[in-house]
Design goal:
Strand content: 15-25%
Shape: extended
Number of strands: 15
Strand order of the largest sheet: 10-11-12-13-14-15
Distance between the termini: 115 Å
Order of helices and strands: EEHHHHHHEEEEHEEHHEEHEEEHEHEHH
Helix content: 25-40%
C-alpha cells in the first residue's frame, strides 16, 4: 500500500490518485483517461451525422412512406385548448405522528387536500376545453367539406404544420387560397446552405487522441442541398394534394424563399429561389417514388436557377395579394373613341382605364386578370396583370403616362423600382409620347417594356379601336384648360 506521498495528482482533475500508466497519458487518472475521445465515440458521432444526412437525402421518400396513416382531423382533435397540468406531487404525512409532529402532519394533509382540489378543477377545465376543441374542429371540418375559403386555408395550414421535416428545415410558410380558381399559393421558407449539416463522419486520430470532423466536399454538399430543396417542394405539394379529400385544390403554386447573409455585403437578404405551379390531376399521375426530383421539377415547368445553392433570386410564378386596397372598379373607355379622338389630350384618369382595358383584351386569351388601381398621379402602379400561366406568367405592373413631352430616364427608373418592390415578373410603361435615348438605354437587359405613342395606337387598332395622337394639339388644349 502506497503512502500519501507516493500518490501523483492527475494533470486533468488535480486530485491525488494512484498513478495510471498509459504511455504519454500517464499523468491522467483512470476516470479522466476513460473520458478521452475514443474510436467508439467517433463511431457514435459518425452515426449521428450520417443519420442527419440520410434524413436530408430522403425527404420525399419518408413522406411517401408515412403520409398514408395521417388523419389530420384526429391530430387536430387531440390538441387541447386548455393544457392539463401534471399531477401535483403529494406530500407524505407520517403514519404515526409523534406529539411534536401532530401540527405539522395536519398542515401537510391540508396541503394535500388543497392540491387534490386544484388538480380536479384543472381536470374539469381540461375536459371542458376538449369539448370546445372538438366543436371547433367539427366546424372547421364542415367548412372545409363545404369549400369555404377560410376553412380550406386552415386545413392546408394544418397539413403543413404536421409535415415532419429534417433538422435545419424551417416550417414557416404563408398561404393564399383563391376560391375562384381553386389555386393555393404557398410561400415556403427553405434552409440556407449554412443551416444544414456538412459533416459526413468523425475520425479518431489515435496519435493525438483526438476526434476530427470530416466534411463533405463542396460538390457533394451542393448536390445534396439542391436535391433537398427540390424534394421539399415536391413533398409539400404531394402532402397537400393527398390530404385534399374534397378536391378543394385544383392547383398549387409553391414558392421557395431563403433568408441568408449576402457574403459580399454582410447584409441579410431574402429571395425566392424556386417556383412551380402543379395541377392536381397531372401531379397525381407522377410516380414520386421513382423520379429524379430536379427532373420532375423541370418537367412541371418549374422556375429556378440551375444551381439552387447559388441562391440566385427569381420571380415567383404567382404571388398575388388580392386584398390589395388600391384596386378600384374599372370602366370602359375605348368604345367611346374614333379616329378623331386625341389620346394625348384625354383626362389622365380615363387614360389609365383605357390602358387597363387594352391590356385586359391583350391578356384575356391566357386567362389573366387585369386590375386598375386608385387614381393617384403619384407615379405608382396604375394597373396590375395577374397571369396564371406556369411558364411565363406571374405578376406584371403597368404605368400609364399621358405625356406630351419626351419621357426621360427617371420615369423608367421609377418603373424598375416598382417592379422590384411589387415582386413582379415584368413592368410595362405606356405613354402617348416617346422616350429619350437614356430611357431606352436604362431598360436594356431589364424586365421592362417601353411602349410609345405609335405602339399604343397599334395596340388600340389590334383590338378594333381607332384614335389619334397629336401632341401639339394636346398642348394647346391642355394649355387652354390650365
Amino acid at each position: 500500500m502506497q503512502n500519501e506521498a507516493d500518490k501523483i495528482p492527475c494533470t486533468e482533475c488535480g486530485v491525488g490518485i494512484l498513478p495510471f500508466r498509459a504511455k504519454k497519458f500517464s499523468g491522467l487518472c483512470k476516470t479522466c483517461f476513460d473520458r478521452l475521445p475514443s474510436l467508439e465515440s467517433a463511431g457514435k458521432q459518425t452515426n449521428l451525422h450520417q443519420n442527419r444526412l440520410d434524413q436530408t437525402k430522403n425527404i420525399l421518400r419518408v413522406a411517401l412512406g408515412s403520409i398514408e396513416t395521417k388523419d389530420y382531423w384526429e391530430q387536430l382533435n387531440v390538441r387541447s385548448l386548455v393544457t392539463i397540468p401534471a399531477s401535483p406531487e403529494l406530500l407524505e404525512c407520517p403514519a404515526k405522528p409523534e406529539p411534536n409532529w401532530v401540527e405539522a402532519g395536519k398542515k401537510i394533509e391540508a396541503e394535500n387536500q388543497k392540491r387534490k382540489g386544484e388538480h380536479m378543477a384543472a381536470l374539469e377545465q381540461w375536459k371542458e376545453g376538449q369539448i370546445k376543441n372538438q366543436e371547433a374542429v367539427s366546424l372547421v371540418k364542415a367548412g372545409y367539406e363545404s369549400l369555404e375559403p377560410e376553412a380550406v386555408k386552415l386545413y392546408c395550414k394544418l397539413v403543413l404544420q404536421f409535415s415532419d421535416l429534417p433538422d435545419g428545415f424551417r416550417s414557416d410558410f404563408d398561404l393564399e387560397y383563391i376560391p375562384e380558381t381553386k389555386i393555393l399559393i404557398i410561400d415556403h421558407a427553405l434552409p440556407a446552405p449554412d443551416d444544414l449539416n456538412r459533416v459526413k463522419e468523425v475520425e479518431y486520430v489515435q496519435s493525438k487522441h483526438e476526434l476530427v470532423e470530416v466534411f463533405l466536399s463542396e460538390r457533394e454538399f451542393d448536390e445534396i442541398y439542391d436535391d433537398a430543396l427540390y424534394q421539399t417542394c415536391l413533398r409539400t405539394i404531394h402532402e397537400l394534394f393527398h390530404a385534399d379529400t374534397v378536391n378543394a385544390l385544383a392547383a398549387i403554386v409553391f414558392n421557395g424563399w431563403i433568408e441568408s447573409v449576402d457574403k459580399a455585403t454582410g447584409n441579410d437578404t431574402k429571395g425566392c429561389v424556386l417556383s412551380v405551379q402543379a395541377k392536381k390531376e397531372e401531379f397525381q399521375k407522377i410516380n414520386l417514388a421513382r423520379v429524379d426530383p430536379k427532373a420532375c421539377f423541370k418537367a412541371l415547368q418549374g422556375i429556378g436557377s440551375s444551381t439552387l445553392h447559388s441562391l440566385t433570386p427569381i420571380a415567383p410564378v404567382l404571388k398575388i395579394h388580392r386584398e390589395d386596397k388600391r384596386f378600384v372598379a374599372s370602366h370602359e373607355v375605348a368604345g367611346q373613341m374614333d379616329e378623331r379622338f386625341n389620346l394625348a389630350a384625354m383626362a389622365w384618369e380615363d387614360f389609365e382605364h383605357l390602358v387597363r382595358e387594352l391590356f385586359e383584351k391583350e391578356f384575356s386569351r391566357s386567362g389573366s386578370e387585369v386590375k386598375v388601381t386608385q387614381a393617384s398621379r403619384d407615379g405608382g402602379v396604375d394597373a396590375v396583370v395577374f397571369d396564371p400561366d406556369p411558364i411565363h406568367g406571374g405578376k406584371t405592373v403597368i404605368q400609364a403616362k399621358r405625356y406630351t413631352n419626351t419621357v426621360g430616364v427617371a420615369a423608367v427608373r421609377e418603373l424598375y423600382g416598382t417592379v422590384l418592390n411589387e415582386g413582379a415578373m415584368k413592368g410595362i410603361l405606356v405613354t402617348t409620347a416617346d422616350y429619350g435615348p437614356d430611357a431606352y438605354e436604362f431598360a436594356k437587359g431589364k424586365p421592362l417594356v417601353l411602349l410609345n405613342g405609335a405602339n399604343l395606337l397599334h395596340l388600340l387598332e389590334k383590338h378594333g379601336h381607332r384614335a389619334k395622337i397629336d401632341l401639339q394639339e394636346a398642348k394647346r388644349l391642355l394649355g387652354q384648360t390650365t
